[in-house]
Write a structure and sequence with these properties.
The protein is of the alpha/beta class. It has a single domain, classed as Alpha-Beta Barrel (TIM Barrel). The chain has 8 helices and 12 strands. The strands form 2 sheets. Strands 1, 2, 3, 4, 5, 8, 9, 10, 11 and 12 form a 10-stranded mixed β-sheet that branches. It has a two-stranded antiparallel sheet with strand order 6-7. Strand 4 and strand 5 form a beta hairpin. The longest helix has 13 residues.
């Protein structure tokens, strides 16, 4: 449904699941290949999805290719693990900016994957063909501090969101116990197990932050089980930024 706002804008409520992994993430199922993700996203009634593999982005362009001609928009992104083991999901306007951040992340990431322990890290194209495997230790932490991680994302025009803050592990609250006053997250993500309404009651001291809910899908059946309705004029990063900031009539529905 389209809604008029202030007589100037025509806003639509987009169903957004902004935290979906592909088979490139070692902890994700191998069925999470590009065409399957798009098919399940459409089946789940999603308008926008965010692809956020752990410390890697090779499958993003293939998911975008798989979405061509279909009514679902893909935000190119990555879930970056800071030195403090805080997960930060990030989104960019285009693949070029994402790849620049990828260079920074890879330069700060050590170790090699052991598939028998951590899982397969498959690069799969839009035709369901395996292009290769990522041998880096994607499940590990980078040497980037939380502040450096967010500064890097913002430096390339991206959005930085604190992942699953209601989880004890790999969240800013779980790892640090608080959100530092000088750390500028664009939003805070709540897992589907808690939900937005319950999270507002649990974290009253975070009332100044925008909350979103996502699925953090690692399996096909997870896609769309957590989503946020975001009112924007179009599915673009600039519109998403305005919605997260509550500017010019754009907003996140809770």
């Amino acid at each position: 449904m389209v809604y008029p706002v202030l007589g100037a804008y025509m806003l639509k409520g987009f169903r957004c699941d902004l935290h979906i992994h592909t088979c490139l993430s070692p902890c994700a199922d191998l069925d999470m290949y590009p065409t399957a993700l798009i098919e399940k996203s459409l089946e789940s009634g999603l308008d926008i999805i965010g692809i956020c593999d752990h410390n890697a982005s090779e499958n993003v362009r293939y998911v975008i290719e798989a979405s061509r001609g279909k009514p679902v928009h893909v935000f190119p992104g990555m879930e970056i693990t800071s030195r403090e083991e805080v997960h930060v999901i990030s989104f960019f306007e285009n693949i070029g900016d994402l790849l620049k951040v990828q260079e920074v992340v890879y330069a700060a990431l050590s170790g090699s994957n052991r598939e028998e322990i951590f899982g397969c890290q498959a690069i799969v194209n839009e035709s369901d063909e395996v292009e290769g495997f990522n041998d880096r230790l994607l499940i590990g932490s980078t040497r980037l501090s939380l502040q450096e991680t967010i500064d890097t994302v913002h430096g390339f025009g991206g959005i930085a969101i604190a992942a699953h803050i209601d989880r004890e592990s790999f969240s800013v609250l779980g790892q640090l116990g608080f959100i530092p006053s000088d750390v500028r997250f664009d939003a805070l993500e709540i897992s589907r197990r808690t939900g937005l309404k319950a999270a507002r009651k649990r974290y009253p001291d975070l009332h100044d932050h925008t909350f979103i809910e996502s699925s953090d899908a690692h399996f096909i059946s997870d896609i769309g089980t957590g989503f946020t309705k975001i009112f924007m004029e179009e599915p673009s990063l600039s519109e998403l930024k305005m919605a997260l900031e509550g500017r010019e009539g754009r907003y996140v529905e809770e």
